[in-house]
Structure formats: C-alpha cells, structure tokens
Design brief:
The complex is a heterodimer of chains A (354) and B (326). Chain A has 354 residues and is of the alpha/beta class. Chain A contains 14 helices and 11 strands. Chain A is globular, with a radius of gyration of 22 Å. Chain A starts with 19 loop residues before the first strand and ends with a helix. In chain B, a hairpin with a 3-residue loop joins β1 (76-78) and β2 (82-84). Classes of the chains: A alpha/beta (354), B mainly alpha (326).
Amino acid sequence: MTTVSWSSEPGTSRGPGPFLSVRDLSVRFSTEDGVVRAVDGLSFDVEKGTTLGIVGESGSGKSVTNLAVLGLHDPAHTEIDGEIWLEDQELVGASGATLEKLRGNRVAMIFQDPLTSLSPFHTIGRQIGEVYRKHKGANRKEARERAIEMLERVGIPQPATRVDHYPHEFSGGMRQRAMIAMALVCDPDLLIADEPTTALDVTVQAQILDLLKDLQQQYGTTIILITHDLGVVANTADNVLVMYAGRAAERGTVREVLSKPRHPYTWGLLSSMPRLTSSVDEPLVPVRGTPPSLLSPPAGCAFHPRCDFSQLVGSELCFTQRPDISPESGHGDACYLTLQQKRDIRTGETKDHA
Amino acid sequence: MTSFLVRRVVGALVILIFISLITFYLFYAVPRDPARAFCGKICPPETLELVRHNLGMDKPLFVQYWLWLSAIFVGRDFTQFGPCPAPCLGYSFATQEPVFSTIVDRFPVTLSLTLGASVVILSFGILTGMLAAWKVGQPLDKIASSSSVIGASLQIYFIGPLVVFLLVDTLGLLPRPSYVPFTEDPLTWFVHLLIPWVVLSIIFTANYTRMTRSQMLEQLAEDYVRTARAKGMSGRSVFFRFAWRGAMIPIITIFGVDLATLLGGAIITEQTFTLHGIGELAVRAVLNTDLPMLLGVTVVGAAAIVILNIVVDVLYAFIDPRVRLN
C-alpha cells in the first residue's frame, strides 16, 4: 500500500470496541411455507483472542448467525438486518468481493462433518493450498509447502506424504485436523467452528478441542465455537451465549453461566446433562416439549410454552412481551423472573435433589 | 488397472457369446426358412436341400453355432462362397457379400453420424444445463428448461423431414443429407451431415440440459461446496472447479449408454435421412431373414455397448478418486 487510507467508506468508522460485534441481527428465510425468522434481534460481542461458545438446540440459529458473519447465505432467499462489525469493518452491507477476500483469510470456518465438507475430488494438499494461493498470491510450490507445514502444525504424521492424499484416505479425526489446517492456512483472526467435534468419537473430540486451544494460545486466534454440548463449552470457551429460537437467552462467562445459570432454559440444558458427581440413579431431566417452529414462533417469550415458571411472573408478561437480555453487559439473561425469584427456585431445586 | 481391464474384457467376451447364442436361437425359433428365401419363389425340394446344405443349415444347431464362432478367430471355407479369412462373420444370405467387410464399409457412416451428433449434444447440453443452473430461477433458466422439454418430446421422423424440407427444399441453405467419406473431403462430409447432427441433438440435448442442471444444483447444495465458498473461492470457481466434477459422473454414465445405442445403429435416424449405416443394415437383415448379417450387426452393436461401458468405468476413476478399479 502506498497511500494512507482512512476508513474506506464514510460512516463505517468506529472507535475501539470488541473484536467482533453483532448488533440486533435478524436473518429471515423466505420459504414456500412462509418466512422463517431464524435469527431475530441477536446481539453479542467477542473480545480478541477469546473463545465464545454458542450453545443451543438444533434450529436455535447458531449456525445461521455464523454463516451470516461470512455472508454465506443465499441472497435470493435471505433477508439480513442489523450490523456485524469485525473491528472497523461492517459485514452485513459489505460487497461480495469484500466478503470473498475476508473468507478463508481473516475469518475462517470449520464445519461439522469433515467428510462431506471436504471436496472428494481434490487432494488435501490442493484444498489447503488453494486458499493460500487465493489470498496470499502464492505459487503452486509455495502453497504446497505451506500445506505440508499446516498439516504438521495440526499434528498429522508424515505430512509430506499425506499432502497428496484424498479425504477418503484420511480417518475422521485426521479429516477434521486437515479441515482445521485449511481454515488456519492464512492465519485468520477469527475462526468459526461449527460443531467441529459432533461427528467424531469422544477421544478424537478431546484431541481436536485441545488442538484448537493450543493453536489459539500460540497464534491468538479469536474463536467462536458452536455446539450443543455444554461439556465442550466448559472445557474450551471463555464466554458463553445460550441461544433459543433465534435469540439470546443467556450470556456470560463460562463460570457465570454454568455455575450460576439464570435462564430457565439454561437450567433445563444443564439438568439434561449427565454429571460425574451425581449418582447413577438420579434421572436426567430433559427440557420438556420441543423447540418452537420459527415460521410462527410463540408470542411473548419464545420459551414460555416449555417454561415451568411463567406463572410466577404474573400479568401474563411472558405470553405477550418478548424479554430482552439484561443487563446490557456482563452476565445477563432474557427472562422476566427477578433475580430473587430465580435464586429461590434454584435453592428450592437443590433442596429437592438433596 | 490392468487386472481390472483383463477382468472386464473377459466379462465382455462372455456377454458377447451369450448375446450371439440368443440371437442364433431366436433366429431359428422364428418360423421362416432362410433357405427358402434364398432359393427363390419357385424352388424344387432338391434345390432347397442343396441350398440348405450349402448354407450349412442341415447341421445341428450347436454345430452351426460353433462353426460361426470359430470362423471369427480362424476363418472358414464356404463351399458356396469360397474361403473367408478371419475375422469371418460369414457371407450375407441376401447379398452374398462377406458380412465383416460390409459392416466395416458401413461403420464409418454410423460413426460419423454418432460422433458428430455427440459433440453437438454434449457441448450444447452441458453448456445450457450449466447456464440454467448458474441462473437458476431466472428467465434464462426458465427458457432453457422449458425448451428442453419441447426438444425431448419431438420425434426424429417428424422433425427430421421438416428440417430437410425447410433448409434444403425451401431455403436451399444446406445439401440433402448423405454420406461422403471424411478422408475424401472433410468439408463436404461435414456439410452433408450437419442436418442429421442438428436434428439428433435437438432431441438428445434436452436430456443433457435437464440432467446437467439438476446435477449442478445438487452438487452446489453439497457441504464441500459450502466449504469452498467459506474459503473465499469465487462463485465462478466454485461452480466450475468444484461442483462440475461431481455433476459429470452421472452424465458420463448416461452418455455411455446413449453413445452405444447410437453406434449400434441409429435405425430411425438413418432411415429418415437415407444414410446407409449399421442401423439400415440391421433393418434389411431382419427383412431378408439374413442370419449371418443379423448376427454380425447384433454382435458389433453389443460390442459397442460393452466396450463403452468399460470406458465409462475407467473415466469414473479419473474423475472421482474414490472409485478404485481394483
């Protein structure tokens, strides 16, 4: 660059803030049955070098949110409102060319099923190398060397041989390692991992999560980890965002959310998870009911049909008014129950269990 | 690869023997006496017996078959027609010409027709299918998709004469379809076959347009295509470098079958444009109760199908590294 450029477009400049900031994001899909509000007024921040775990059931809008960060939704069927700021760059209104330069370069993504997510027709080395060639302008030879280096970095044995193999010649865990190598080849600032361990067996899961943690410590990558597994979040993330029906239900540090959960939905998630410390005879309590249809979400709080405590709030608030997350920062949740009520419910529950 | 080829070629030979056996049997199951046809309208019994003997038809069926089969490899001496060196498929009952050389003479006609049409069909079919997938839901897609339905519902004996009438008789733009050997004059060869190629491709292209479109759309919805986009690959390179490979596999399969069918004799096409190829030969062999010719054409057609199937399998392995030939 020979010229000093200020912020490229007027009105897009912003003071120092979080590394990634999602503001009032909505993503709507038009389908044959009507409009699906997959994400509806979601805001969250991620600080540089930290890991945010996004937790929720299938269809809660976790993946949709993150595909929106990369601009990967089909514009013909999708309507996106709100703002996504990556440092001083706004992404919702960004051009296709801008997003193309960003993807795989500053923001990379790894997906759930590494077998179907890798091209069956190209060698691992080529798939890793082409990202490097595209964004860094490297030639074929440099890209290949970089691919070998990346395979080594993610712990694949004999990378110089493995680089010429096809995905079907790799095991599940190795494929996900290769996927991670591909995502990290351009040293991205932000890595979005969409259920990276769901398709893997448990021992491999732990290895992959350790790998992500190590890489983050070494390179300072910011990570968004999408999962439905609170155990994964507890081990890997700094902060947690619990999503329900396209909105934030609860947000806070891992410690806050897992040890002092405030939202009834988070309580449900936690009590449906087995713990090593609890007795074998103690039944797991699933969240009753099913996730709401996002074609016609329930009025008021989307969780109210599955919530045992809505009558405590009174004046039918839960059935008519949609709660916003509060307080604005720190540990917050979107529920009308007062903190005192929540404390009472939780202590009551603990007594019941004891 | 080599062991794959050996296995497939052996399999192919077994299939061809089986097909020729069935053809042989079916021919004798039909209540028409080729000797009588050969002998003529007024035919005394002694002459009929002689003809039968000369044609080798007085021997048991399996001996006849064995003689036919061994002649392909070692040749055969016919009392009536003289020696027939290997590969010998016998002499035609009707024309008394050697079957093998007749087929060899006719084959370039069918081959020219088929290969020329294939080039048009594949290039137009894949191109329009890809365009339709690229612009899915937009006017271009709708035009391509609906015109392909019209094309697929046309019949060659209807549209063929229509095009000839229009371009040859009315406008005089092109010469009447006929076959001029390529080696003689490539330009004349090309101009005279243009109408059959175009007419064949009007009908066949539709299939490839529809299939390419749906296959491309299917591939574009695959996870690995999403990954390619998440890596920052441009829409165009995702389309042409990633999705294309997967979409071609079923297209090659169908093309292999279509090509073999056409090579075995595009009977209606050849009749429509009075081209003297393998298809026309087959029709005449049936009408004339001409066993050697019928067997020859059938086996050559079957061989085309079997060989092209092997070629398709090898192509799979080139396109998709997951396919292993051994």
